[in-house]
Design goal:
This protein is an all-beta fold. 0% of the residues lie in helices and 43% in strands.
């Protein structure tokens, strides 16, 4: 656990008369830095059938000595409680806890196809410091409907089976690859 150090603020008594100096007093004020809060999609693809959940990971930095509640907004083309199981709009990290996972579990829609998007945004707050670079205040999980993960295919088209070659040939191989999932 890190030790909190006091923050010193300067309270100056400015005297602008010639020949006099300005006096300054140091006043100790307790200072507890706002925790650094980040978000990322640790499992950016949720899909059905099978209800494979997408996962947002919400974490905070070094200062874990107190419980903290982190609010966020959910946007995108997928609707909370309709396209995926209802999730809350805040999480509480207990004292000593540095991260938690938020599961995005798709609701089975038998006729749905394609993808929908769930974007989680950490709004700016006076209580937290959000990482301003690298996209850590927003993360995205995609929901794929009627998703099947078919393996890609590859077939050698040339040379054909049972072809023969002289020794030390310079053989050109032509292959065709395919992916039914796009």
């Amino acid at each position: 656990m890190k030790t909190q150090c006091p923050h010193f603020s300067m309270a100056a008594l400015a005297l602008s008369m010639p020949g006099l100096f300005a006096a300054a007093a140091l006043q100790a004020q307790p200072f507890f830095p706002a925790p650094l809060v980040t978000i990322f999609a640790s499992q950016p693809l949720a899909y059905e059938p099978g209800n494979h959940a997408g996962v947002f990971t919400i974490s905070r930095g070094d200062y874990t000595n107190a419980a903290v509640t982190i609010s966020y907004t959910l946007t995108g083309t997928a609707t909370n409680g309709v396209d995926y199981a209802t999730v809350p709009t805040s999480v509480t990290l207990a004292a000593g806890q540095s991260e938690t996972n938020l599961l995005i579990t798709p609701v089975v829609e038998t006729n749905a196809t394609g993808y929908k998007k769930v974007a989680l945004h950490l709004p700016q707050s006076r209580r937290f410091f959000y990482e301003p670079w690298g996209g850590y205040d927003t993360a995205v999980v995609y929901i794929a409907y009627n998703y099947t993960n078919e393996p890609p295919t590859i077939a050698i088209e040339s040379p054909t089976n049972a072809s023969t070659f002289p020794s030390r040939p310079n053989i050109v191989i032509l292959a065709k690859a395919g992916d039914s999932n796009g």
